[in-house]
């Protein structure tokens, strides 16, 4: 999909970032909620794929 979600990796902080790219001017609350759900589902899918390959993401954000 052109607007994402896009996956980025920052080596310095060893962080994964999932991001969307769409205009807020052309959006509604419902559209924004839908896009957020897409990112959440994508992150869950990525987590399971990595877990199946023996890679565990650190989810300690403190």
UniProtKB/TrEMBL annotation:
<dbReference type="Pfam" id="PF05932">
    <property type="entry name" value="CesT"/>
</dbReference>
<protein>
    <recommendedName>
        <fullName>Tir chaperone</fullName>
    </recommendedName>
</protein>
<dbReference type="InterPro" id="IPR010261">
    <property type="entry name" value="Tir_chaperone"/>
</dbReference>
<dbReference type="GO" id="GO:0030254">
    <property type="term" value="P:protein secretion by the type III secretion system"/>
</dbReference>
<comment type="similarity">
    <text>Belongs to the CesT/SycH chaperone family.</text>
</comment>
């Amino acid at each position: 999909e052109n607007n994402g979600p896009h996956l980025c990796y920052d080596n310095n902080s060893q962080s994964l970032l999932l991001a969307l790219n769409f205009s807020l001017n052309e959006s509604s609350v419902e559209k924004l909620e839908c896009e957020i759900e897409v990112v959440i589902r994508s992150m869950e899918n990525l987590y399971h794929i990595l877990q199946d390959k023996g890679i565990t993401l650190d989810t300690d954000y403190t």
